[in-house]
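F.,

This is the one I mentioned.
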C-alpha cells in the first residue's frame, strides 16, 4: 500500500498510475496540464481522470481509499466488480495486451490463508483450463500477485441464471428446455473427461446475451476415482446428503443431474423446489431431497411430457434417475420437438426467437448516456447510477452525444438542459427520431418549465423539470427502459 505526503501527492500518484499501466503517460500528461494551476490535491486528479473516462468509478473509489493493490493483476486492469460470493469476487477487466474484456476471479483475502480453500480455488482453474466447450466458460490463466490468488476467464456479457429467473419469474417450457439442454451438454462434456461439477445451482450458470447457458465454478469438480475433502466443504452439503442417504458413490454424475432437475424446476415455475437456506442442519435432512412437492401443484398446466422429464431428473433414487447427461439430453430434445414456445403440443419444433433480444434487455446492465458538463453533477450521476447497476457514460457536449448515439447507441440518454443549454431540447427530439429503440429523458431548468407543454411525451421518453431528486430521475429511467422491454416482447409476439 502506498501513502503520499501532502506536498507531492499528485505527482507521486500520477507516476504510480502510469507505472501500474492504469493510465497512459500521454493521458496523464494531459490531465496534469489541465490541473497545473488549479490544485495539488490528488483527489482532484482522480476526479478528472474519472470524468474523462480514463478510470472507472470502481477504480476511482479504490484509489481514493489508497487501495492500489489488486487494481492490475497480471496483464489485466480491473474495471468493475461483477459478482461477489462467499469465497471469491469476479471482476470485469480489460487486457493490457489487446484490450479485450476478460473476467477475473479473485479469492477473498480471508480465505487466502486457508490451504484447502486455496487448493480448491486453484483446482477450479486447472480443471477448467482443460475444457473447450461452448457451454463451459473457459479459463485462460491462473496467477498469484500481491498476496492475491486469481485466475482469468472468458467475460460473459450477461448475468447468471438466478438473475434471469428473478426478472422473468418463469419461462416457457421450450425456453426452459433450451437452457437445460445447454447445461446438460456442458456436463456431458465434463463427464467424458472424467469430471463432475458438484455445485449445480442457478448462480453457477451464466447466460450470454446470445441466449447460451455456460457453466462456471468447477471448484468442487472431482475425478471419478477421487477422494478428498469436497464433502467437508459447506458447498458440498447437498451433494453429500443426497449421496449418503441413497447409497450413491461420491462424484456420481447422476448427482449433478438431480440438481440440474432443481434448476429445470425453477425455470418452469419461477420457484425453487425447496427453500434456500444457510442452515446446515436443514440442508442435511434427506427429506429435503426426497419429499419435493410436485411441480404440478404450482404449474398444473405443464405438458405431461415435460413433467415426466423433470421427475426423472429429480428422482430420489439414483437408479430411477437418468443414468447420464446424454440420456437426459435425448429426452429433452424429443419433448422440445413436440412443443411450441407456449407449451402446447404441436408437430414442428419451435424456439423462442426473442431470447437474445430479451437477454440483452434484462440481463446485460443497461447503458445510460448522461449529457452534463458540470463536474460535480457528473460525479453525482456517475456514482449514483453505477451504484444502482447501470453502466454510465458522461459527455459534456451535445454534438459528441449525438455522434455517440449514431455510432453506438446506449439504452437511454439523459439531457440536462440547465447544464448544456437550449440545444438539449432539439437533441432530445432528434435522438428519439434517430433510433426507434432508444429511450430518452430530458431534464428542463425551472425557468424553461413552459417548454414541457410543447413537447410530446411517448412511452420511451420522459420530461422532468428542476428541482428533482436523483432517485426520481432514476425512477423515470427505469420506466422508459421497461417500456423498451415491453415493446420488444410485443414485436416478437406479432
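My design for it:
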Amino acid at each position: 500500500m502506498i501513502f503520499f505526503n501532502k506536498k507531492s501527492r499528485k505527482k507521486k500518484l500520477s507516476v504510480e498510475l502510469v507505472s501500474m499501466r492504469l493510465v497512459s503517460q500521454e493521458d496523464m500528461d494531459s490531465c496534469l496540464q489541465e490541473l497545473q494551476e488549479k490544485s495539488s490535491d490528488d483527489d482532484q486528479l482522480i476526479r478528472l481522470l474519472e470524468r474523462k473516462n480514463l478510470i472507472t468509478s470502481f477504480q476511482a473509489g479504490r484509489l481514493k481509499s489508497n487501495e492500489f493493490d489488486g487494481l492490475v493483476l497480471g496483464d489485466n486492469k480491473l474495471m468493475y466488480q461483477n459478482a461477489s460470493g462467499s469465497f471469491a469476487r469476479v471482476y470485469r477487466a480489460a487486457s493490457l495486451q489487446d484490450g479485450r474484456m476478460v473476467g477475473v476471479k479473485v479469492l477473498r483475502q480471508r480465505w487466502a490463508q486457508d490451504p484447502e480453500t486455496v487448493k480448491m480455488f486453484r483446482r477450479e482453474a486447472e480443471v477448467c483450463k482443460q475444457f473447450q466447450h461452448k457451454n463451459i466458460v473457459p479459463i485462460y490463466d491462473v496467477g498469484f500477485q500481491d498476496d492475491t490468488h486469481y485466475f482469468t476467464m472468458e467475460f460473459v456479457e450477461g448475468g447468471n441464471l438466478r438473475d434471469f429467473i428473478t426478472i422473468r419469474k418463469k419461462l416457457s417450457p421450450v425456453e426452459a428446455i433450451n437452457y437445460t439442454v445447454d447445461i446438460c451438454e456442458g456436463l456431458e462434456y465434463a463427464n467424458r473427461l472424467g469430471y463432475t461439477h458438484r455445485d449445480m445451482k442457478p448462480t453457477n450458470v451464466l447466460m450470454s446475451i446470445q441466449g447460451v447457458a455456460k457453466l462456471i465454478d468447477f471448484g468442487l469438480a472431482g475425478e471419478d476415482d477421487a477422494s478428498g475433502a469436497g464433502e467437508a466443504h459447506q458447498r458440498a452439503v447437498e451433494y453429500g446428503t443426497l449421496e449418503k442417504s441413497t447409497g450413491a458413490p461420491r462424484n456420481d454424475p447422476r448427482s449433478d443431474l438431480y440438481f440440474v432437475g432443481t434448476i429445470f424446476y425453477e425455470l418452469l415455475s419461477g420457484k425453487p423446489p425447496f427453500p434456500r437456506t444457510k442452515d446446515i442442519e436443514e440442508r442435511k435432512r434427506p427429506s429435503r431431497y426426497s419429499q419435493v412437492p410436485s411441480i404440478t401443484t404450482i404449474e398444473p398446466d405443464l405438458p405431461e411430457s415435460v413433467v415426466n422429464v423433470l421427475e426423472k431428473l429429480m428422482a430420489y433414487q439414483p437408479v430411477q434417475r437418468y443414468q447420464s447427461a446424454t440420456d437426459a439430453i435425448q429426452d429433452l430434445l424429443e419433448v422440445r420437438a413436440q412443443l411450441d414456445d407456449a407449451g402446447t403440443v404441436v408437430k414442428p419444433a419451435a424456439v423462442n426467437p426473442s431470447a437474445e433480444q430479451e437477454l440483452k434487455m434484462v440481463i446485460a446492465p443497461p447503458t445510460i448516456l448522461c449529457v452534463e458538463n458540470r463536474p460535480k453533477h457528473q460525479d453525482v450521476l456517475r456514482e449514483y447510477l453505477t451504484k444502482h447497476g447501470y453502466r454510465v457514460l458522461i459527455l459534456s457536449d451535445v454534438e459528441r452525444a449525438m455522434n455517440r448515439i449514431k455510432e453506438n447507441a446506449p439504452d437511454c440518454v439523459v439531457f440536462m438542459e440547465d447544464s448544456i443549454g437550449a440545444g438539449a431540447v432539439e437533441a432530445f427530439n432528434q435522438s428519439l427520431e434517430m433510433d426507434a429503440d432508444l429511450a430518452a429523458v430530458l431534464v428542463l431548468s425551472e425557468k424553461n418549465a413552459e417548454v414541457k407543454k410543447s413537447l410530446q411525451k411517448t412511452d420511451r421518453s420522459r420530461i422532468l423539470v428542476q428541482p428533482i431528486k436523483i432517485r426520481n430521475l432514476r425512477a423515470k429511467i427505469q420506466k422508459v427502459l421497461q417500456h423498451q422491454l415491453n415493446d420488444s416482447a410485443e414485436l416478437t409476439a406479432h
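The chain is about 45% helix and 15% strand.

Talk soon.
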